[in-house]
């Protein structure tokens, strides 16, 4: 997990995906973690098999797989997609205050690199309802949980996490390391799940769809 010490606090940033409600009448063809729907699943090299299986099941929940569908059919359907998408993004937290800003509705993990736009003073689209927003405050970046009208009427009451602008490249590179570790864990899960040739293909598809191992043009801004 990316982190940086700032004003005696450790600001954290991690890639997360939203856990869907897997209640469409079909059972995932591998064990999955019994995680509450609409909660956030952090992605890292430390994910156990059940969380890795939940991630793949969440990918499959967004595409049409005709029942009855076994393991091979589900993975084949994923591999047939031009790009995989999943609800999620980056979560920023201040462990000292306990404040955490999470992705907004309809945000996707595929856009996680857009956070680098804040280095040039912009605010990438981070979802809506609530609508996270990044605001430049001097040399710092204030990450609001809700950048909508309510926040502008009373900023002091809004939930936000502050981080120094110069720390953002470090945090983003930390997220990339987490995601690379997650890819390695996913590859090992695929081997244990006996996916055969589908396993490496699935890992490549996840890497490509979420731009994980690709080099940055300039993460230092």
Architecture overview:
This protein has one domain. It is 29% helix and 19% strand. The model has no long low-confidence stretch (mean pLDDT 89).
Write the layout of secondary structure elements.
Layout: E1 2-6, E2 9-18, E3 40-42, H1 49-60, H2 71-79, E4 88-94, E5 99-101, E6 133-137, E7 140-144, H3 149-153, E8 160-164, H4 168-192, H5 198-209
Helix pairs in contact: 2-5, 4-5
Proportion of residues in helical segments: 25-40%
Kindly state the number of beta strands.
Answer: 8
- Main pleated-sheet profile: 5 strands, antiparallel
Mean residue pLDDT? 89
* Secondary-structure-derived class: alpha+beta
Q: Mind telling me the C-alpha Rg?
A: 18 Å
Overall 3D geometry? elongated
Query: Order of helices and strands, N to C?
Result: EEEHHEEEEHEHH
Briefly say what this structure is.
The chain has 221 residues and is α+β, with helices and mostly antiparallel strands. It has helices at residues 49-60, 71-79, 149-153, 168-192, 198-209, and strands at residues 2-6, 9-18, 40-42, 88-94, 99-101, 133-137, 140-144, 160-164.
Tag the structure with descriptive keywords.
29% helix; 5 helices; single chain; elongated; three-stranded antiparallel β-sheet; alpha+beta; 221 residues; five-stranded antiparallel β-sheet
């Amino acid at each position: 997990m990316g982190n940086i010490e700032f004003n005696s606090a450790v600001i954290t940033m991690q890639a997360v995906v939203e856990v869907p409600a897997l209640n469409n009448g079909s059972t995932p063809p591998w064990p999955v973690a019994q995680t509450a729907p609409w909660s956030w699943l952090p992605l890292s090299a430390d994910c156990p098999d059940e969380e890795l299986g939940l991630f793949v099941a969440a990918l499959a929940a967004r595409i049409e797989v005709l029942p009855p569908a076994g393991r091979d059919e589900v993975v084949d359907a994923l591999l047939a997609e031009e790009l995989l998408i999943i609800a999620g993004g980056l979560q920023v937290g201040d462990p000292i205050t306990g404040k955490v800003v999470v992705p907004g509705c309809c945000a996707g993990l595929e856009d996680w690199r857009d956070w680098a736009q804040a280095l040039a003073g912009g605010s990438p689209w981070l979802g809506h309802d609530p609508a996270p927003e990044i605001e430049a405050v001097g040399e710092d970046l204030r990450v609001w949980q809700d950048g909508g009208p309510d926040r502008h009427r009373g900023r002091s009451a809004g939930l936000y996490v502050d981080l120094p602008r110069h720390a953002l490249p470090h945090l983003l590179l930390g997220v990339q390391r987490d995601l690379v570790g997650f890819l390695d864990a996913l590859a090992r899960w695929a081997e244990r799940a006996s996916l055969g040739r589908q396993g490496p293909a699935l890992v490549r598809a996840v890497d490509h769809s979420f731009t994980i191992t690709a080099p940055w043009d300039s993460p230092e801004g």
